[in-house]
Amino acid sequence: MQIIYHEQSRTFHLRNSVTSYIFRIIDPGYPVHLYYGKAIHDREDFDHLLEAAPRPMSVLIADDGSELSLEHLKLEYPVYGTGDMRPPALDIRASNGSRLLDLRYESHRITEGKPGIPGLPAVYCDDSSEAMTLQIRLKDAKTGLAVILNYTVTEYAPAMMRSAEIINEGTQEIVLEHAMSLSLDLPDRDYDMIMLTGAWARERSVKRNPLHEGAQSISSMRGFSSPHFNPFIALCRKNCTETEGEVTGLSFVYSGNFLAEAYCDTYDTVRLRMGIHPDTFKWHLAPQASFHTPEAVLAYSCTGLNGMSQIFHKLYAERLVRGYWRGRPRPVLLNNWEATYFDFDEAKLLGIAAEAKKLGIELFVMDDGWFTNRRNDRSGLGDWEYDPERFPYGLGHYTEAIRDMGMMAGIWIEPEMVSPGTKIFREHPDWVIHEEGRPMHPGRHEYVLNFADPDVVQYIFEKLDRLLSEGGFDYVKWDMNRSMSDVFAASLPHQDELMHRYILGVYSLYERLIRKYPKTLFESCASGGGRFDPGMLYYAPQCWTSDDTDAYERQKIQYGTSMVYPVSSMGSHVSAVPNHQLGRTVSLKTRAETAYFGTFGYEMDVSKMTEDEKEQTRRHIAFMKANRQLLQFGTFWRLKSPFESNETVWMTVSEDKTEAVVAYYRCLQQINRGFRRIRLAGLDPDRLYHVSELEIDVYGDELMHTGLILSDGSGGERVSGTDFLSRLYMLRAVS
Ligand code: GLA
């Protein structure tokens, strides 16, 4: 990893073992992008990459014969008004109404390590030798607006982080209208764009479409990152597969409204932009004030989509997730939501817990319904006092009982929301996001607290602090169950700042709680996986992946989620059949073998299991405990996509390549079909592996090149059974 500066040509070359990122400053001070892709040799200048052909109708930088036009150059942080006609990274309104900006290079700094971003989640390093950071300072002479572009390159997981700081060094207020975290111009548009789309209970389906002229984008304006579009896009070459070809992934470390866009001009170039959604954002920058954009992460791979995902997995699991739970195998939990919904009290929970303990459960989580006035989802959110009817001896008594059984205790909260009829709603109607004199629009019968107001955050902090210290909880599931509407807060002078300030308030509450309770395991949730984003992972090491717990649907959801997020971050549970969302019945074995690839737990009343089911469950939990280091922290490979076929195959390989687990899932049984062979990945070619199920010893190169044969060749299937079948193959190196 290096950041090289060639003084004469004013060229920067940032590189690690995988990529080179090159740009230069051209006269009169514009940072112009030259290359991003596979690592290449360094040289004194890369000026041959400047595209300067004379074109009619272009606005030129100067009438000096150079023919350079900002419209045809690749730009690092484009603005409006100096000749570039594509969407800008930064757009402002000066006090005289002008949108014009002319940002020119002033200076730069190259340092070891990586600075944090105040108030925002960001990738970090353990040691400054892991990363290098380049900061380019640009300035607009007329307004006094300065911009610092931050580029961090790491070797640890070979990614690049970008963000910007915008400082008003003038004397008049400046309004930021767009402040993107990243803009990246690529020289051709021969790509497909991959995105993760969905909705409640069907989050993160993998979609792939060719780029076309004009803008194609995904976004959220719901107040959270959303299940509809995850803050991630990738551009891959047409021939890119899971294991081969070039791809650049772009992921946003932010949980609020976002925009990710690929804009193709009519000269076949593409501009990528990622940042806070400009339609629901403005920021009023007083003289001397500064604004920090969230961080965008770039991961380039020339070894297919798995290569890109593995960079994100390592970076996010080890340098975004923080604290006690980083790298620590996650406790096998039981959550009572699908077991009881709102119908429970202490005695009922303790009954399920006793049975859970016998099966090997380590953490017992009490979901929604433990607090006053909460018999259904129409009331109760916001006061956060336990319900004495359900807990006659108090919450401390309940958690003690769980502890006495030898388990950890967890609790559900939804701190950002409020139900009508609660004390907080009555006493502080002004704390609820809405505009007086207009009807309020409910979502799941609840309203949103104004987390942009520090008094609200303080109030909720005190409530939760009391709850966590008195109840002594080891785990918190932090839910968030609605999109934001009626976006107005009387406390704020500038309404366009509300959405961003709201999410900063959420982050500040998380930060205070994890500082005070560093060993508490937080799991984020938003009606399932509606806020599954890198911003959340900085605070909560795991996230409830989806409210859909059907195993077959989960294979798709987990497959899509793995495009960016590590297995250790995916909340995954075995639930009852017929499944509560779809009515489908899938074997207990397949349900467990799907949930193994995540944090693993149960979401059902285990006391109602048959003896045979309990026996199987004891074995499943024991298997998970014995293998969770490998399953949660090994290198994950997607081998066959449920979005493209009747089958799903993925595998996980230990870091030293001595162990691996291959999971094969088949949706519908088929008769008299051809052989199925799957090529494995990530093994040591020279080691001999014993393959369970087949009971054969095979070299790694054979498994990766000839593949694993899943049929026995006699017309029947080695992988026999009926619909929704699964099979695990354990690979252990024997030499
Ligand atoms: C959301 C969550 C569920 C559950 C319920 C409780 O829908 O995603 O897991 O916690 O809320 O109301």
Describe this structure in words.
With 735 residues, this protein is α+β, with helices and mostly antiparallel strands. The chain folds into 3 domains: 87-319, Beta-galactosidase, Chain A, domain 5 (Distorted Sandwich); 323-633, Aldolase class I (TIM Barrel, Alpha-Beta Barrel); 640-733, Immunoglobulin-like, CATH 2.60.40. Helix content is 19%, strand content 30%.
Summarize the topology:
Blueprint: E1 2-6, E2 11-15, E3 19-26, E4 30-38, E5 90-93, E6 104-112, E7 131-139, E8 145-154, E9 160-168, E10 174-186, E11 191-197, E12 205-210, E13 214-220, E14 229-237, E15 247-253, E16 258-264, E17 270-276, E18 283-285, E19 290-292, E20 295-301, H1 304-319, E21 333-335, H2 337-340, H3 346-359, E22 363-366, H4 395-404, E23 408-413, E24 417-418, H5 423-427, E25 447-448, H6 454-471, E26 475-478, H7 498-516, E27 521-524, H8 534-537, E28 542-544, H9 551-561, E29 570-571, E30 573-575, H10 588-595, E31 601-603, H11 611-633, E32 635-640, E33 647-653, E34 659-666, E35 677-678, E36 688-691, E37 696-699, H12 700-705, E38 708-709, E39 725-733
Parallel strand pairs: 21-22, 21-31, 22-23, 23-26, 26-27, 27-28, 28-29, 30-31
Antiparallel strand pairs: 1-2, 2-3, 3-4, 5-10, 6-7, 7-8, 8-9, 9-19, 9-20, 10-17, 10-18, 11-12, 11-14, 13-16, 14-15, 15-20, 16-17, 24-25, 32-33, 33-34, 34-39, 35-38, 36-37, 36-39
Helix pairs in contact: 6-7, 9-10, 10-11
The chain binds alpha-D-galactopyranose.
